[in-house]
Specification:
The chain is of the alpha/beta class. Helices cover 29% and strands 24% of the residues. The strands form four sheets. An eight-stranded mixed β-sheet has the order 12-13-16-17-11-18-10-19. Strands 2-3-1-4-5-6 form a six-stranded mixed β-sheet, sandwiched between helices. A three-stranded antiparallel β-sheet has the order 7-9-8. Strand 16 and strand 17 form a beta hairpin.
Amino acid sequence: MSPSSGNWRVGIGALLFEGNTLSPVVTELRDFESKYLARGEDVLGSLRGSNTEMAGAIDTLELHAVDIAPLLATHGGAGGRVSAAAHAALTGDLLARLRAAMPLDALYLALHGAFVAQGVDDMEGALLALVREIVGDIPVAVSCDLHAHITTEMVRHADILIGYRHYPHDDTYDTGRRCAGLLLRTLRGQIRPLTVMHKVPMVVPAQKQRTKSDGPMGALHARARAREAAGDVLALSYFPVQPWLDFPDVAFTAVAVTDDDPEGAEQAAADLADAAWRRRHEFDVETVAPAEAIRAGLAVEGGPVVLADAADCTGGGATGDSAVVLAALLEHAPQASAVILIVDPETVAAATAAGIGGRFLARIGNKLDPTYGAPVEAEALVERLVDGGFTYTGGLLGGVTATMGPSAVLRVGAVTVVVASLSSYEYADEQLRAAGVDPWRCKFVVVKNPMNFQQAFADAPAAFTLDTPGPTTPNLARVPWRHWTRPVYPLDFQE
């Protein structure tokens, strides 16, 4: 089939996961299934209408009467390394479906850029090399999460590579639409895309990366959009990188896609990366000890006061099972109403055995990853048992039905503890609502993310980023990195 015919056949697929090498917990296939995992025609049926990249690509390609060959689409959230078996099953399935779908005129893949598996540090680069062997020299377009660790192999094998524009990630649908649009322009012969990356030696925490702001990422967002609007580049993306990857060459990366203009691409990517470097100190985060934050929160009128335990962020690869803040609430605000979500399948089982209205001596949290603390021992009242299903109201999984597994709502002193069997990405308050809890009726709400709470609880009277232990700590200089390429900010360049 000639690409000039306009009757193109385009393969689409997604394999997304954000790895964290500081987490000891192995991610399994069930962790992908608990978000979404679609194969073949089910990719079209289950993801159309969602806010995923696949939905954006599907709508764009169907609008132009393209014959879509759906492969496999999944998002495993974030966590420790994916097991070798799960990695082999997912990549093997995608590649087998790709071989069966050939010949194709083009291919679009939605990847994260920080998928790490047992024995594989650069899954995306290795996958794209295998993809290129199968598809030959047809155009291959790739979209990545804004926190991707962009590697030489990824850029080598992708004709087009772009990233999300927004953080928090609410433009995943638009990213798929944009990437598919560039692919269509390539097939029509309107452009000859060329992709270049440029890195600067800095790794920064997520708290100051909000793109819809007057902060450093807001300025970079405006700078990139201006270059695109001027026609200097087809796409200009920034990748502040998933910071909890202990690999060489982890760094802030800019990627430019031009119409066969290597010098222009290099200049645009270098300009954006250098602009980020000049503002590196603006990404620094102030943290507060839990006891201090709780005391300050008690003095604030109204609620909920947000306590952000970002070091236990499931969206960054932590287990979500830290009970450090629960212990602090019970000690420093024993009469204050509060709610916290903790991943603890053992306690869910104990609550189920006790039954609704039952009481039992619970050992809550710090079991999946005991590195950062001990379980909290306390008497718990079982208020509710729920199946854990919920639907995301927005963000990168907007419209997707997911699950936190069988869950229990416990009353421990004045604190409502939602204990879940599975970790789940935290966008707004969907998990709490699914458990029958209204966080706005509490004095304190504990969140386990560095950014999404800034919009989900934008009307909260106060918010504190806590100084807590965990594998997604914003205090990057405290981590005993072994493989980062030095020098790198914030470990170096403190002038």
